[in-house]
Amino acid sequence: MNQILLQEWNTPFHAFPFDQIRQEDYEPAIHHLLHEAKAEIQAIAQNQESPSFSNTIEALEKAGLQLNRVVEAFFNINSAETNGYIQETAQKLAPQLAAYSNDMLLNRDLFHRVKEVYDHRHAQDLSPEQSRLLE
Q1: In the prediction, which pLDDT does 36 show?
Q2: pTM greater than the 0.85 cutoff
Q3: What is the mean pLDDT of residues 68-81?
Q4: For the domain that residue 45 is a member of, what is the CATH number?
Q5: CB neighbours (10 Å) of residue 48?
Q6: In this structure, which of 12, 40, 58, 101 has its CB flanked by the most CB atoms within 10 Å?
Q7: How many independent structural domains does the chain possess?
Q8: Residue 100: enclosing H or E segment and its boundaries?
């Protein structure tokens, strides 16, 4: 697997380094990052601290960022410069990514944490931007 997909990209404007990525690199990288993102979501959902904007909402905003970047790069290639291999890989990855999204959105513990933050939003000193995220 090309490790460039698992690193921060040191490119102008954080543009995707497509010239350094082979089509075979996406699937193993996405599997690895899916595993990491699931662990991040689980850690948020099972956090024993009282739910707060920081340990719940901000943590959710940061969870899976690298996965999102790599998936975005992959599906850009799938749209702009596809081939049989890329299309086959997309068909394999799509259900896994949908399952990850469903598992996160339907996670009962995570929902209760977000609801707790929302229900107590007026008791917190939230910025207008933070309040907007809770709407």
Answers
A1: 98
A2: yes
A3: 95
A4: 1.20.1050.40
A5: 4
A6: 40
A7: 1
A8: helix 84-105
